Amino acid sequence: MPTPAAPRWTLRRGLIALALCGLLGAAAARADELQDANALLKAGQHQQALERVNKALAAKPLDPQARFLKGVIFTEQGNTKDFKTPRGEPRAAWEKARRARIEGAKAISVGVSSAKVTLTGAASASTG
Is the pTM of this model over 0.70? Predict the structure, then answer.
């Protein structure tokens, strides 16, 4: 006997909502890691800050905020040779452009639009 379509659709919507919450939760956890890293950096605890940033980068390797913070930590430690700029641009040019973006910003807002979540298995989803 066939099952009604409505329960399957409800289950699918529930799974999509659950996956989206998981993705947003992961982003919030990454943001917490970066906030903690920033606080540790300000307290002069460079190694602990670097560990937090590396944890965030493990989840999202190209995250610009995490990469920037890692560069700041390396600079504070006097270890700038290990920092790689995004897209391989020269360090001085990257620093100048980055400083202009940060110092010129009055406020920063973040939003999500047209989010797509694809179920990749019974208990997993991906964005893209």
Answer: no
